[in-house]
Amino acid sequence: MKRVFSSSSDAETRAIGAEIAGLLPAPRLLILSGDLGAGKTTLVKGIVQALQAEDEDAVTSPTFSLVHSYEGWWDGRAVTVLHLDLYRLEDERQVSSLGIHDWMTEDTLILVEWGEKFRLIQELADGSIQIASTGPESRSITVEWNEPNKPA
Ligand SMILES: Nc1ncnc2c1ncn2[C@@H]1O[C@H](COP(=O)(O)OP(=O)(O)OP(=O)(O)O)[C@@H](O)[C@H]1O
Ligand SMILES: [Mg+2]
User: Fold this and answer.
1) Class for domain 2-149, per CATH?
2) Average pLDDT estimate for 128-147
3) Any bridge partners for residue 109, and if so which?
4) Closest residue (by CA) to atom 8 of ligand 1?
5) Closest ligand 1 atom, CA of 62?
6) pLDDT of 48-83, one tens digit each?
7) Cα of 152 from ligand 2 centre, angstroms
8) Per-domain residue ranges of the chain
């Protein structure tokens, strides 16, 4: 499955995040890619808000902390959203020591900024959200995921 969105503001990117949350077949691991300041964290805010995971203001760019965790709802079931930013990690060994594979359950949505830098994350990912700047405030947002990962 692939969808392409275009955004012309911060608020629109949050709304697209919310829409993506509604389109995803199940909570999985998605890589968020795009340049610094593209809007990856902004889009995560929209996803988190749509899942009623936390007040959106609680989601800030995870500059200091590697993982932010939120408890929300997915079709009436409790879901955990893990938002990771691997920008500061340098090698596969550091990524591997996080033990991300152990966090991957059917009730966990894992969103990984800069995940494309690491082979391990690429292997674990079920899809991606790519954000490209097409102007000062305009963005092209492409979301793709593997259909075989639909819930049974
Ligand atoms: N259409 C847009 N969508 C998202 N953000 C936008 C848009 N237009 C302008 N912005 C601004 O771009 C910035 C995006 O910041 P954000 O932290 O979401 O980026 P990021 O991709 O997570 O960056 P980083 O790689 O540093 O974590 C914000 O300051 C936001 O207001
Ligand atoms: Mg960010």
Assistant:
1) alpha beta
2) 96
3) 81
4) 137
5) 27
6) 999 988 654 555 554 457 888 889 999 999 999 999
7) 32
8) 2-149
